[in-house]
Amino acid sequence: MADLRTDRVAECAQRLHADAYINVQGDEPFISPAAIDSVSEALEHLAPDTLAVNAYTELTDVGAVLDHNVVKVVVDADRNALMFSRQPIPYPRGDRPRYLRQFGLYGFTGTALRLFRQLPHGPLERTEGVEMLRFVEHGHRVQMLSVVDDGLGPVRRIRVG
Questions:
Q1: For the segment 49-62, what is each residue's pLDDT rounded down to a tens digit?
Q2: Is 83 exposed, middle or buried (CB count within 10 Å of its CB: 0-12, 13-18, 19+)?
Q3: Coil, strand, or helix at residue 110?
Q4: pTM of this prediction?
Q5: CA distances in angstroms from 62 to 8, 36, 68, 84, 85, listed in the order given
């Protein structure tokens, strides 16, 4: 499997030592600085067994829910990632589920990045093409951080909760 974005961030972290690292992916060029600050703050308060923070937002557009380029995430009661998928998850059986979109905004501890490079790619990561599954598949927690975004580019308003 080719080097992925987080693999490249981990490689940079080997040369540039810091307590934490934030990755803003290229497909999210207008992420608000406030959202980045929120991920940075969340990194300072991570539970000891949590290695990464990943921003997410609620999806309301059916087209985005069905779009395989939009990564969906399911979270537990403590907002830890349970699963990431390019398919609509959870399956809409009965009540209309709440769909969450993973943002291309990640925060990592230095320990997390070192571990990330050592962990083998699991079958879910290979199938879905979603890097954060590497942590999830190996039993490591990824804290999800809610970011509500109205999509107005550089002047967008966000609420972090």
A1: 898 999 999 998 99
A2: middle
A3: helix
A4: 0.83
A5: 33, 27, 12, 18, 16
